[in-house]
Predict the structure.
Amino acid sequence: MADKPIILVTGATGSQGGSVAHFLAKSGKFSVRALTRDAHSKKAAALGPEGVEVVEGNLDDKDSLLKAMKGCYGVFGVTNFWEHFDKEAQQGRNLIDAVKESSIEHFVLSTLPPVNKISGGELSSPHFDIKAEYEDYAKSLKLNTTFTHLAFYFDNFIGFFPLKKGEDGNFHFGFPQGEKTKLGGIAAGDIGGVVTGIFENRDQYLGKTVRIVGDALYPQDYAKVMSEVLGVKVIFDYIDRKTFTGFGFPGAADIADMFEFYTKFIPDEQKAIDESKKLFPAIKNFETWLKENKSRFDELLGK
């Protein structure tokens, strides 16, 4: 156990970090150290049986990060905008500074493209743009880094965009994704499979950005697959950017601009899908993921 390279995983009780910790431990090639704010939480306790070492630390406290990175070969880093909002920028920098001071040999950092920059200032999506800013910071320090950009989570159809029964008796979902552009998606549980592949092929991926995508479908085709698998009529309702922003919930404008960005600036995901499959051949397409999670949808649909 001790002779295996140690990889510190931040956000190890969340969707991304949890998947990464699971797959790294399962690979048998690495010792996994999971960073969490509360080592006694239920999710943290669940990591122990997988052979994961759990340590307490906080992205707001660089000293705790330095302590957690002691003796580590690699680090997987992820921050959570939706929990910390603008504080995410400093947390990202703290993580990057700690990696620099710890002389980490392979840093895999979960970031996102710069929406504001690519759109020429037309769009602004803080949960993308903040990560893009600290990606630039990491690049300026010339660390041994691979960046990952994640597609839309299939899991969002359970949490953020659940199916809702309409007056017509059918189930609906909607957002500002253009109907003529495919939306790239990924099962949150598959992220770790791709990231483990990156750690296993360090030299090939140093300095590169890997966009992690399992499938890409037109929004109406997501609805079609859901109709077929779930046995109910599911309809996609296009909601324009202005209307969606007007819903006024925290992050509404951010998410509206994210979909506008997907529509206008990420028109083809095939190359990303091929690269993701190469790194993790068992990656799921949407239909496979949906079938595996049908019971969760049945519960939401009241079946």
Summary: The chain has one domain: 6-219+222-300. The mean pLDDT is 95.
